Amino acid sequence: MKQTTCALYLRISTVDKGQDTDNQLLQLQEFCDRQGWQIVETYIDRESGRKGKRERDGFNRMFEDAAKRKFDVLLFWSLERFSREGIRKTIAYLQQLSNLGCRFKSYTEPLLDTENELVAHIVVGVLAYLAQQEAVRISERTQAGLQRVQSQGKILSRPDGFEQWKDQLAEL
């Protein structure tokens, strides 16, 4: 019997807030060891999950390699680490993997597994919606913070670029 080949997909939103993929990687590697799966590739993105394939190099490469049948199953830590683009896009991505003959599995969401298609589709819908809502809440918190500092008199715009021409403009 052929050994199952597995690819890991890891994502963090930012690199400047002390986030790293080490915890995700360790747990996924241990899971693959227990399953007897051979890890053939690890894809890592340091971008928002709200960004699509074009903006996430690892995500894009993962789909290219899935099309080349480089692995049998894609394992990710959680659906919100996979995508925060909303229900339609997330389901489309997972359907694309299935159409390419690639199974998928979420480490932290055992029901999200291609082994149980009906349950997986229901769970995907709910989790994709929740992931999208978390992204909306993050945006709302950011906007509230910006409004607060703006109300304190801080100007929140980029320099207009005219500083370098200030003297010439004054002469004119």
Task: Give a brief rundown of this model.
This protein is of the alpha/beta class and 172 residues long. A four-stranded parallel beta sheet has the order 2-1-3-4, with helices on both faces. The chain has one domain: Rossmann fold (3-Layer(aba) Sandwich).
Characteristic key phrases:
172 residues; alpha/beta; Rossmann fold; 4-stranded parallel β-sheet; 4 strands; 48% helix
How is the secondary structure organized here?
Layout lengths: L4 E8 L9 H14 L2 E9 L10 H11 L5 E4 L2 H4 L4 H13 L3 E4 L10 H35 L14 H6 L1
Parallel strand pairs: 1-2, 1-3, 3-4
Helix pairs in contact: 4-5
Could you explain the architecture of this structure?
- The chain has a 4-stranded parallel sheet with strand order 2-1-3-4, sandwiched between helices.
- Strand 1 (5-12), helix 1 and strand 2 (38-46) form a beta-alpha-beta unit.
- The chain is of the alpha/beta class.
- The chain starts with a strand and ends with a helix.
- The chain has one domain (5-150): Resolvase, N-terminal catalytic domain (Rossmann fold, 3-Layer(aba) Sandwich), CATH 3.40.50.
- The relative contact order is 0.12.
- Helix 4 (87-99) runs antiparallel to helix 5 (117-151).
- 48% of the residues lie in helices and 15% in strands.
- It comes from Trichocoleus desertorum GB2-A4.
- Keywords: DNA recombination, DNA-binding.
- Residues 5-153 form the Resolvase/invertase-type recombinase catalytic domain.
- Pfam families: Resolvase.
- InterPro entries: Resolv_N, Resolvase-like_N_sf, SSR_resolvase.
